[in-house]
Amino acid sequence: MPITPFHFGPGALIKAAVPNHFSWTVFALANVVIDLEPVSLFLLIGDPAHPWLHTLPGALAVAVAVAVFGRRPCEALLRFWNRRLSPGQARWLAVVPDISRTAAWVGALTGTLSHLALDAVMHADVEALWPIVPGNPWRGALSLDRLHLACILAGVAAAAWWGVRRWFVLRGRY
Ligand SMILES: [Zn+2]
């Protein structure tokens, strides 16, 4: 996608559904790292291409790197986030800063693999399942407007779900 944050919406929905076994922060980091490929190529050669990391082996390699090396920095980022909150804000916005190994691996793998799935619909040069399936038969399976809308709606639904859960937690009814 031209803007990586579109990928964050579906991840937020997974986080709302299984908050204890999925790290959204690691998921987001995996999406940012994999998109360093088109961003770097655009800066180097003027073409935001997806030749290596946007393939199955490339995405798995990014997931492994992010799961292994990204967990501690993500925990540090969450602690930093918590420290910036006032007591009133913390009631709603404080997060659990510890990320289990499982949550990191699930976040990293779903991050890069869902990234491939969404990008394959959008970019002709993304060979998501190379070398098992050459080429890109999924390009255009969904219109770009619908794809973007689905990602935004997933994020909005996740925020609403999260807000309702917090509301019940704060009132001791959940
Ligand atoms: Zn991408």
Please write out the topology.
Elements: H1 8-17, H2 24-34, H3 36-45, H4 56-69, H5 71-84, H6 87-93, H7 101-122, H8 144-170
Helix pairs in contact: 1-2, 1-8, 2-4, 2-7, 4-7
The structure holds zinc ion.
Zinc ion (ZN) is lined by residues 1, 34-35, 54, 115, 119.
Bound molecule kinds, no repeats? zinc ion
Uncertain segments are none
- Mean pLDDT, to the nearest integer, reads 94
| Gap from first CA to last CA | 37 Å
Structural class, judged by helices and strands?
mainly alpha
Radius of gyration: 17 Å
What proportion of the residues form beta strands (DSSP E)? under 5%
Total of domains: 1
Helix content: 55-70%
Number of strands: 0
Shape: globular
- Number of discrete helical segments: 8
The H-and-E topology, N to C, reads as HHHHHHHH
Describe the model:
- This protein is an all-alpha fold and 174 residues long.
- The protein has one domain.
- It is built from eight helices and no strands.
- It has helices at residues 8-17, 24-34, 36-45, 56-69, 71-84, 87-93, 101-122, 144-170.
- The longest helix has 27 residues, at 144-170.
- It is globular.
- The chain starts with 7 loop residues before the first helix and ends with a helix.
- The mean pLDDT is 94.
- The protein binds zinc ion.
- Zinc ion binds at residues 1, 34-35, 54, 115, 119.
- The site of zinc ion (ZN) has 6 residues, from helix 7.
